[in-house]
Amino acid sequence: MPEWITSPAPVPYETALAAMEARVAGIRDGTAAEALWLLEHPPLYTAGTSARSEDLVDPDRFPVHDARRGGQYTYHGPGQRVVYTMLDVGARGRDVRAFVAALEAWVIDTLAEFGIRGEIRAGRVGVWVARPDKPPLPDGTPREDKIAAIGIRLRKWVSFHGLSINVEPDLGHFDGIVPCGITGHGVTSLVDLGLPVAMGDLDDALRRTMPAALARMGGGALP
Q1: Among 99, 97, 45, 62, CA closest to 216
Q2: 160: number of Cβ within 10 Å
Q3: Is the pTM for the entire model greater than 0.85?
Q4: What is the structure's pLDDT at 223?
């Protein structure tokens, strides 16, 4: 099983990126174990490799970092659990789609621990929650809100970056970007959905559901 690392205080983005880079190099050369890093960041925006300049609505609101992961613009900040997944995808079958699908399923299984039905949508990255309590979109499409984002990078078949789940962030902070380039639908969190979930509760659920996620990644759990 990978090593679990939990940071109790918000970690600056540059610090986290340097630590991930070092860990990935260690995993690649056999001097470090796989790791799952649970942390929060100070308020910031990250730009993925597909980010469009017009989706950065308020560029002066928070620091903007070039993440070099897949995806577009994402917000990170207090009240959001970030999970950096430093795993050997090469030893797990070298199937990138299966790996990403396993991360999505991990989030969905974790949300189910709290009675939330998370879903994925073709053409829309991340995990979504239906909001029948909100008016539909102007074209009649039922409203759905995003509760989790996923964006990874591979270096020599070792993954880093990962996913984020909204526990109780300031949802207004997402207004400075078009999250993941998707308009119309909104953003939600566990607390916004009426669930008094603390960060530790989510961490416990992530740990309980991780073995099934590893099995889906191809090759099963590593020794």
Answers
A1: 99
A2: 24
A3: yes
A4: 35
